[in-house]
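Researcher: Let's do a round of design. I'm pasting the structure tokens now; please hold your answer until I've finished.
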């Protein structure tokens, strides 16, 4: 009997510490915040929702606009505090997957002491709007297009004739253009950017504020007018940049305020977000105010 008791005691001594140690390692790797996307996948131009679920520690509070480290490179369009965490709306302005690192949420107690809660990393696949199946749109061998027999000379003659016709058409176009330019004399001088922008906005409003699906095309044109005007007064081309890229270039307060208008236009253009007629009129008035504030001063 003593031998059996001794054997049981030795077994517990050997295996019990290993069990306890492994359990402690698992709990040490747990995250205090659970990060999860509500969508399984996204496409460029969409708005996705990220939930950060956690329990606020005793004695600490979550501010109305909490500090979240790790989202600097993403376009945040909305943030809302929930009973059990935070809901964040992110505008997808890239083609690659959204690969979020561990985020950190800052909490404070009544004495101003800070506490950081860390989340798990999370990935959301981003799929392009136009998909190409493997094997499609591949170049076919030349033998399947051009016969390799006696007809090769006939094919080359046809190709040569087409090239000659194209060259003749191009030459005729430039000759006519040159003749008209000499006949009409020098063209009218280009309008200043602010006058050109006002003229385009007035032309856009000739038929009034559109309804339904026509608002999307209206926002496309208004966004183009504002980007073109900004490019005329600044040293970069906003027409070829996203709002996130523009925000990293502009420094003027008025330009930063214009970004809010461009973001709203992008949400209607790409995400088909609803915008009321009154809100659209307000954005037009804000656009006019921006042009008036930034136009060149009259001498």
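Researcher: That's everything. Go ahead.
Model: Designed sequence:
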């Amino acid at each position: 009997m003593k031998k059996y008791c001794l054997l049981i005691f030795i077994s517990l001594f050997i295996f019990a510490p290993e069990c306890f140690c492994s359990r402690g390692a698992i709990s040490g790797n747990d995250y205090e915040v659970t990060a999860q996307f509500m969508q399984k996948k996204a496409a460029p131009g969409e708005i996705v929702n990220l939930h950060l679920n956690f329990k606020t520690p005793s004695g600490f509070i979550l501010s109305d606009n909490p500090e979240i480290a790790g989202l600097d490179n993403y376009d945040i369009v909305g943030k809302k505090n929930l009973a059990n965490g935070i809901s964040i709306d992110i505008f997808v302005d890239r083609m690659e997957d959204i690969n979020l690192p561990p985020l950190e949420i800052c909490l404070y107690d009544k004495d101003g002491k800070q506490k950081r809660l860390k989340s798990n990393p999370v990935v959301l696949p981003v799929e392009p709007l136009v998909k190409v199946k493997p094997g499609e749109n591949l170049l076919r061998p030349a033998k399947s297009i051009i016969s390799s027999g006696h007809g090769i000379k006939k094919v080359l003659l046809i190709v040569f004739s087409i090239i000659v016709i194209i060259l003749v058409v191009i030459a005729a176009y430039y000759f006519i253009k040159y003749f008209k330019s000499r006949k009409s004399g020098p063209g009218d001088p280009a309008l200043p950017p602010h006058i050109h922008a006002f003229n385009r906005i007035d032309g856009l409003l000739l038929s009034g504020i559109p309804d339904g699906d026509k608002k999307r095309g209206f926002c496309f044109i208004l966004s183009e007018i504002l980007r073109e005007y900004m490019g005329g007064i600044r040293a970069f081309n906003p027409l070829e940049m996203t709002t996130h890229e523009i925000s990293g270039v502009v420094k003027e307060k008025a330009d930063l305020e214009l970004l809010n208008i461009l973001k709203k236009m992008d949400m209607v253009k790409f995400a088909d977000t609803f915008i009321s007629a009154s809100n659209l009129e307000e954005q037009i008035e804000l656009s006019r105010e921006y042009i008036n504030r930034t136009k060149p001063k009259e001498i």
